[in-house]
Design a protein that fits this description.
Layout (H helix, E strand, L loop, with lengths): L1 E5 L3 H15 L4 E8 L2 E7 L5 H21 L17
Antiparallel strand pairs: 1-3, 2-3
Helix pairs in contact: 1-2
Length: about 90
Amino acid sequence: MKVKKIMYAPTAVIQFTYKFNKENNTNIERESVEYLDGSPFVTIDLKETNQNLIFEYSYELGRIQNYLAKKREELLPLQDYPFPPERG
């Protein structure tokens, strides 16, 4: 299942998704960012993730985005939310 949602900090989605996948053995993927009228919309592929984990992922991602918007931050702390290794 794929979802497209407006996000305050699209780069933080990469960080959170990587950490969530490692902790929960999931394969959720942030596929793309598209800017519509200046607002970033992120497409996330939830793949075959079970409903309970989708709910947990969505809730936590929303909480993180709200927190970052209030703090006017774009990234999560790198020591807690590293970026995935480069593919190649």
